[in-house]
Amino acid sequence: MYGELYLDRQNWKPFIPTGAPGYSGIGLDINEIKIWNAVNESDEKTVTKITVDANSRYFDLWNGQELKATLSEEKPLLIFRFERFGCLLQLAKNMEVPETAFNPAEERK
After folding, report:
1. What's the rounded Cα separation, in Å, for the pair 69 and 75?
2. For residues 57 and 90, what is the distance between their CA atoms, to the nearest angstrom?
3. Which residue from 30, 50, 55 is spatially nearest to 38, judged by alpha carbons?
4. How does strand 33-40 pair with strand 75-82?
5. What's the average model confidence in pLDDT over 65-77?
């Protein structure tokens, strides 16, 4: 579904600083669609907390589920867990999400 977006090199963010050792990211930012790919170079499961936009919806594309933000100190906070790789999708709340938007992990096995 979102694979064709990776071909648009003008919208690539080839390196997103994370401030966390062993954790790196790249991203795409096209209109109201944002995708972040995360790589964990350590052997430990990563839990990342991200301050997010309350007017957006977030999806864990790697595991095929919508993520819900919680409020922390009056700011929306998203908890994103992944092992080696992760892929996070951000859409405007008013955008429809096609059923084929992501492939749950069970279907990839």
Report:
1. 9
2. 6
3. 50
4. unpaired
5. 84
> pLDDT per residue over 40-64, tens digit each?
887 777 777 778 888 899 998 888 8
Spatial contact of 60 and 69, defined as CB atoms under 8 Å apart:
no
Region 89-104: mean pLDDT is 74
Is the pLDDT confidence value at 103 over 60? no
Q: Are 41 and 69 in contact (CB under 8 A)?
A: no
Could you tell me if 70 and 13 are in contact, meaning their C-beta atoms sit under 8 angstroms apart? no
Question: How far is residue 14's CA from residue 5's CA, in Å, rounded to a whole number?
Answer: 14
Q: Please report, in angstroms and rounded to a whole number, the separation of the first and last CA atoms in the chain.
A: 19
Domain ranges of the chain: 3-93
- Paired sense of beta strands 33-40 and 56-60, if any: unpaired
State how far the alpha carbon of 90 is from the alpha carbons of 4, 44, 59, in Å. Answer: 16, 25, 7
- As a CATH number, domain 3-93 is 2.60.40.1180
Distance between CA 109 and CA 76 in Å, rounded?
33
